[in-house]
Write a structure and sequence with these properties.
Elements (H helix, E strand, L loop, with lengths): L9 H4 L8 H9 L4 H16 L2 H14 L1 H14 L10
Length: 91
């Protein structure tokens, strides 16, 4: 996934301030929960829930354009070599 950030912002530095109960954070880390990953996922879901359908579609179109070369290469590989494990399928 490509991550975009504007220079000069906290996002560009990859750091921001989130206030999290330190006890909760310690308990989460103790059981192997990656708090930063969970926070990123929750923020991403919250953003998507608040975006209008037009914003969501524009975001998807940008992603498709940014990844068009890789998508085409993948399609060509599948066309040339087939799907991995296709020879093992019984259906």
């Amino acid at each position: 996934m490509t991550r975009r950030a504007h220079s000069g912002s906290l996002a560009a530095m990859g750091k921001g301030e989130l206030k999290i109960d330190p006890v909760l954070l310690a308990e989460a880390e103790a059981v192997g929960v990656a708090a930063s990953r969970v926070a990123e996922d929750a923020i991403r879901r919250a953003m998507l829930q608040r975006m209008s359908p037009a914003e969501t579609e524009a975001r998807a179109a940008r992603w498709a354009a940014e990844n068009a070369e890789a998508i085409q290469a993948h399609r060509e590989r599948i066309e040339r070599y087939g799907v991995f494990g296709e020879d093992l399928r019984t259906w």
